[in-house]
Design brief:
It is built from 12 helices and 8 strands. The protein is an alpha/beta fold. The N and C termini lie close together (about 10 Å). The structure holds guanosine-5'-triphosphate (GTP) and magnesium ion.
């Protein structure tokens, strides 16, 4: 538990130092005052927590402050973390296997959001837990995309089904499903090409991948996750809505939270979409994919201990 918390804290360093610096550095063990509350408010906005969440946090701290003018920074941090935990109730996706093998996870999203890296990290994680996994290189669009996933597969010893650039991505998905079935594997993770949600023909390609998988198993792909670049902040919300309309999202993965001081956007994204967050990306290494924990996130942001 402690080391997972530490991963959150270290991974979220930039956001943590923006917020926790306010509740700890600024207030410290000292009592808080109106000026420090204003600075906290500004820090929450800057970290992209959004109006609603920032207002709620400030209101609750102010109420406590009115009752007890000797309120300390540490106590304000506890209140802030409690608000985050409450706002994120229901936000933790719990990965479940389907009744029949393989369970298919399809990763979709705009260009560069982290789909391929996440495919590799997730396969590595499941494999490490003793599960059997195949990854499918269904980005047949971008030159070198197949090679990128193949090189991850080599490095991590993953089983992969791939074709060539320009091949029909739905056929690769179909073949990969058959291979996973024949080997009686637990999971099939489908990496797809990056696409703008505004491009109808590319969105249609996703629908085709889904239809073709359904020929094998009407329930597939059981998990349809949007991979969102966490550093892009609230911009992802509209994008996610469109992907949701055309593909029926069942989950989110928020990546690159290590590289941003705007890690609060995750809260706004969840508040708006109410789609559970399964994992967050906290770096580029295979182990930097962590199951999302509202508790760890809330405590880390406010600089509290595990
Ligand atoms: N720091 C950091 N970098 C990440 C994370 N996830 C992915 N990246 C980096 O983001 C870049 C893009 O990642 P990809 O996995 O290739 O993204 P993609 O969505 O597959 O991109 P396209 O296939 O081109 O749409 C790479 O340099 C990754 O190393 C993360 O959690 N943290
Ligand atoms: Mg990719």
């Amino acid at each position: 538990m402690f080391s997972i918390f530490k991963k959150f804290k270290d991974g979220l360093t930039k956001t943590v130092s923006a917020i926790a610096a306010k509740t700890h550095g600024l207030f410290g063990g000292r009592k808080i005052d109106l000026a420090s509350l204003e600075e906290l408010e500004e820090a929450l906005y800057t970290a992209d927590f959004g109006v609603e969440t920032t207002t709620e946090i400030l209101e609750e701290i102010k109420t406590a402050y009115r009752k007890d003018p000797a309120l300390k920074g540490q106590q304000a941090a506890v209140i802030g973390a409690a608000v985050l935990r409450r706002v994120l109730a229901g936000a933790e996706g719990k990965l479940e296997q389907a009744a029949s093998k393989p369970t298919v996870i399809c990763l979709i999203g705009v260009n560069g959001s982290g789909k391929t890296t996440t495919t590799a990290k997730l396969a590595h994680k499941l494999k490490g837990e003793g599960q059997t996994v195949i990854v499918a290189a269904c980005d047949t669009f971008r030159a070198a995309a197949v090679e990128q996933l193949k090189s991850w597969a080599d490095r991590l010893g993953l089983e992969i089904v791939a074709s060539h650039t320009g091949a029909d991505s739905a056929s690769v998905a179909f073949d990969a499903w058959r291979a996973a079935k024949a080997r009686s594997h637990d999971w099939l993770i489908v990496d797809t090409a990056g696409r703008l949600h505004t491009k109808g023909n590319l969105m249609e390609e996703l629908a085709k991948i889904r239809r073709v998988l359904q020929k094998n198993d009407p329930a597939a792909p059981q998990h349809r996750w949007l991979v969102v670049d966490g550093s892009l902040g609230a911009n992802s919300i509209e994008q996610a809505r469109v992907f949701h309309q055309s593909f029926g999202l069942t989950g989110l993965i928020v990546t690159k939270l290590d590289g941003t001081s705007r890690g609060g956007a995750l809260v706004g994204i969840y508040r708006q979409l109410k789609i559970p967050i399964y994992f967050i990306g906290l770096g580029e290494q295979p182990d930097d994919l962590q199951p999302f924990s509202a508790e760890n996130y809330a405590r880390a942001v406010f600089g509290l201990e595990a």
